[in-house]
From TrEMBL:
<dbReference type="Pfam" id="PF13599">
    <property type="entry name" value="Pentapeptide_4"/>
</dbReference>
<protein>
    <recommendedName>
        <fullName>Pentapeptide repeat-containing protein</fullName>
    </recommendedName>
</protein>
<dbReference type="InterPro" id="IPR051082">
    <property type="entry name" value="Pentapeptide-BTB/POZ_domain"/>
</dbReference>
<dbReference type="InterPro" id="IPR001646">
    <property type="entry name" value="5peptide_repeat"/>
</dbReference>
Length: 681
């Protein structure tokens, strides 16, 4: 292998760095697998009389002179990261490449990019080591035999394996090859054309066959009798049960409508990476099927009800995986490409990951009938649909901004479908077919889905189902809630402003008529400001408001320990238009129900104040600090909010018609259901 000058210099520096830590007469190795996503491996090891010794052995056998210093050497190598990176020597190599570094005291380090002969020799060694790895009774190795089938699954290579190992004390079978990464490297080194690979190691005799064959490397054409191998009875029973579960499920899916022959393969990884229905597989087990009914498009999981491959998960072969499959149902017929790259497909995967992590999701649904899950947009891992497909469908492609901003939305589980039954009998048990319907944040903020009382949440879910039935959606979802040709800029700049406004519990007409009955004089207001200053000096701004309603009127209570002064509360009174609060310190004041049309609040500090159910038409708040100010259900028509600080400000169902928000940090406030007609920004 040609080595660049830059790489040669790096190898010389690494050699010099490790030299003091190497023992005379010993040979140390490191091996790395280069993949599409990075690399794996790298722990140092040494070989003695055909057996590999690792830092783990050295740590747990401190008296073994053979491996003394191995753990310390491994720590030194790990400590090089950031300064002397071994990955810099192989990062340019193609995916599915294996590299070995060798370190010997007094010699330059060596780098070997393994070719086919090296990889096959490594496979022979790995098969034997893997067979003996977890034995405790020192059995004799008799043989290991495997047949592998290679299937391209979207961007990934799936490897389906049957393997049988015979030791002097037992015979066992499984579905895992000796080393998946090594097998992928062999396939890559052979041109990536393997369809099947067979091996048998018996004693020291190693037989390799493949389809197609590669006689130049001693790999003959696969013989028909080796397309299947003898399997241990327990494994064969589980394998046959798996095949029957898949057959029954596939036949059922075809009864729902027209099932497309090509599935959707998900890329599972990141902060949730549970393969279906368990642990880790050596192929892409996360598969979705697309089915067209007469009036909808179903996207359904195909594998969560597979039989567990591990006896640890299901010792007595009683369960069809997690006991459920999950699905989305789109309105009308949607193309394969649209659903493959759709945000809701990623959401579907996220729900399945939560179900696997839960441990008994089937029982949860059976006990509660329905469930809701609250998500933040960054809880849905788009990686599973993006992969190498370049999908760009994040949440903003599906929901309007106000339906999820600033972050929250939900998923309703197990809403009934007219096209999909609630249950399906498979070979080991009856499984659930659970519908997933995303819903907007208004159900989270306006209702009691966040209650700890399950009965309260159950009532809300019943109300939700009735609502979706009344509007004709039922369990189905549209391809998008975003209307074409509609400018969504307001929804992005003024969070939640595109949410339908809720009704008000307050009679604002009555409040305005009461406020008009009393106009405060300048002297009275100035006296109130002096008392408020004493209130603040006494620590009055450390309290909080409790907002109540009685007889359609607001009744607010400010909870504080201070006894000094008096809080500024001009509520349900009128402030003259010619009065100025410019630069005033009005923190924690209460303007609820107040008429202050055209009043000057420029550069005032109004942090934490209540301006609910008030009338501030044409008022001037330019430059004011409105941090955590609540304007809910007020009228600020034509008001000036230029360059104001709006951190945490609340304008829910506020009439902001014609208001000027130029230069204000509106995205840090909420405008749920507010009237934003003709606003300036």
């Amino acid at each position: 292998m040609d080595i660049s000058t830059e790489h040669l210099e790096l190898m010389q520096r690494i050699t010099a760095h490790l030299e003091p830590h190497l023992k005379e007469g010993r040979t140390y190795h490191q091996e790395f697998y280069k993949s599409r996503y990075g690399s794996s491996g790298g722990s140092v090891f040494q070989v003695h009389e055909g057996k590999s010794y690792t830092p783990w052995h050295a740590e747990h056998n401190p008296e073994d002179t053979l491996t003394q210093g191995l753990k310390e050497l491994d720590d030194v190598i790990r400590g090089m990261r950031g300064n002397l990176n071994l990955s810099d020597l192989y990062y340019h190599l193609p995916a599915d490449t294996k590299v070995r570094f060798t370190h010997v005291k007094g010699q330059p380090m060596q780098m070997l990019v393994m070719d086919v002969p090296h990889l096959l020799e490594d496979l022979k060694k790995t098969i034997r080591e893997d067979a003996m790895r977890y034995t405790t009774d020192n059995p004799e190795f008799i043989s290991a035999e495997a047949i592998m089938r290679f299937v391209q699954q979207a961007d990934e290579l799936g490897i389906y394996t049957d393997e049988t190992t015979v030791l002097s004390t037992r015979t066992s079978s499984g579905s895992s090859p000796a080393d998946t990464n090594l097998i992928k490297c062999i396939n890559k080194a052979l041109g990536g054309h393997l369809e099947k690979l067979y091996y048998k190691l018996e004693g020291d005799t190693f037989v390799l066959q493949s389809k197609p064959g590669f006689p130049e490397f001693g790999i003959t054409e696969l013989e028909p009798e080796n397309e299947t191998i003898d399997l241990a009875p327990e494994y064969k029973e589980r394998k046959d049960a798996q095949a029957e579960a898949i057959r029954l499920r596939t036949e059922f899916y075809k009864t729902l409508g027209t099932m497309l022959p090509v599935p959707i393969y998900l890329n599972v990884g990141g902060f949730r990476s549970h393969s279906w229905p368990e642990g880790s597989h050596y192929h892409t087990s996360e598969v979705l099927r697309v089915i067209y009914t007469k009036d909808s498009t179903i996207v359904i999981t195909d594998g969560l009800s597979d039989v567990y491959t591990s006896e640890r998960s299901d010792a007595n072969l009683e369960y069809n995986g997690v006991g459920a499959e999950f699905y989305l149902e789109f309105e009308g017929h949607v193309t394969f490409e649209e659903v493959r790259n759709h945000f809701c497909t990623a959401l579907l995967n996220s729900v399945t990951q939560i179900a696997i992590e839960h441990g008994d999701f089937k029982a949860l649904i059976e006990n509660n009938e329905h469930a809701t899950i609250e998500f933040r947009q960054d809880n849905v891992e788009l990686w599973c649909i993006k992969g190498m497909n370049g999908a760009s469908n994040d949440i903003s492609i599906f929901f309007r901004h106000g339906q999820y901003a600033p972050d929250d939305f939900g998923a309703f589980l197990n809403m009934p479908s007219k096209n999909v039954p609630a249950k399906l009998q498979l070979n080991l048990e009856e499984i659930l077919l659970i519908n997933i319907k995303p819903f907007s944040n208004e159900w989270l903020t306006s209702y009691k889905l966040r209650s700890e009382d399950e009965e309260v949440k159950k009532e809300v879910r019943e109300e939700m189902m009735a609502h979706f039935e009344a509007i004709g959606e039922d369990n189905k979802i549209p391809l998008t809630y975003v209307e074409e040709g509609v400018d969504n800029t307001l929804g992005e700049l003024f969070p939640l402003s595109d949410v339908e406004p809720r009704g008000s519990e307050i009679n604002n007409e009555l409040i305005e008529s009461l406020a008009k009955n009393e106009e405060l004089s300048h002297d009275t207001i100035n006296e109130m400001l002096e008392q408020h200053s004493e209130f603040l000096d006494g620590g009055g701004d450390d309290g909080h408001f409790e907002q109540l309603y009685t007889a359609s009127l607001p009744l607010n209570i400010y909870m504080t320990q201070t006894k000094a002064g008096k809080q500024f509360k001009p509520g349900m009174k009128t402030i003259p238009k010619d009065f100025s609060f410019e630069d005033a310190d009005l923190r924690s004041s209460e303007f609820t129900g107040c008429i202050a049309d055209g009043v000057d609040f420029r550069d005032a500090d109004l942090t934490g104040s209540l301006f609910t159910n008030g009338f501030f038409r044409g008022a001037n708040f330019e430059g004011a600090d409105l941090t955590s100010v609540d304007f809910t259900d007020s009228d600020v028509t034509g008001a000036n909010f230029r360059n104001t600080v709006l951190d945490g400000a609340d304008f829910e169902i506020t009439n902001c018609t014609g208001a000027d928000f130029t230069g204000a940090n509106t995205t840090d406030a909420t405008f749920k259901g507010a009237n934003m007609k003709d606003v300036k920004y």
